[in-house]
């Protein structure tokens, strides 16, 4: 997570990761941060994550938090990841 954010507390955990309450230090605004774990563990998991990101980026509903930003943390890989999957996030202009 970038240094301008501070974790406040864990809000929940699901099949693909956890949700934390965070604060943006420069503005003092609070956000929910969804952290996905083992994103590129397999192709199906990566595809589901990309699908969720695309849906959240387009969704506008009063009961659903708007996707404000996306952090991509460096990954230490034990096995090579298929380049076409890891490049999809970087190549999608709606997510940058």
Task: Give your account of this protein's structure.
- The structure is a single chain.
- The protein is α+β, with helices and mostly antiparallel strands and 96 residues long.
- It has a single domain (5-95), classed as Phosphorylase Kinase, domain 1 (2-Layer Sandwich).
- The protein is 26% helix and 26% strand.
- The chain is built from two helices and three strands, in the order βββαα.
- A hairpin with a 4-residue loop joins β2 and β3 (29-36).
- α1 (43-58) packs parallel to α2 (83-91).
- The two termini are 16 Å apart.
- The mean pLDDT is 79.
Short description:
The protein has 96 residues and is α+β, with helices and mostly antiparallel strands. It contains two helices and three strands, in the order βββαα. α1 packs parallel to α2 (83-91).
Defining traits:
96 residues, alpha+beta, Phosphorylase Kinase, domain 1, 3-stranded antiparallel β-sheet, 3 strands, 26% helix, 26% strand, globular
How many helices does DSSP assign?
A: 2
Seen as an oligomer or otherwise, the chain set is single chain
Query: Strand count, sense and closure of the main sheet?
Result: 3 strands, antiparallel
CATH hierarchy, class: Alpha Beta
| Sheet with most strands: strand arrangement | 1-2-3
Summed over residues and divided by their number, the pLDDT gives a mean of 79
Q: Which class do the helix and strand fractions yield?
A: alpha+beta
Shape: globular
């Amino acid at each position: 997570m970038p240094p301008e954010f501070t974790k406040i507390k864990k809000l929940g955990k699901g099949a693909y990761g956890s949700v934390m309450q965070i604060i943006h230090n420069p503005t003092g605004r609070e956000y929910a941060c969804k952290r996905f774990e083992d994103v590129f563990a397999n192709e199906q998991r990566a595809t589901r994550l990309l699908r969720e990101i695309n849906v959240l980026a387009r969704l506008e509903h009063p009961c659903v938090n708007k996707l404000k930003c996306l952090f991509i943390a460096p990954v230490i890989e034990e096995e090579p990841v298929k380049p076409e999957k890891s490049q999809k996030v970087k190549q999608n202009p709606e997510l940058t």
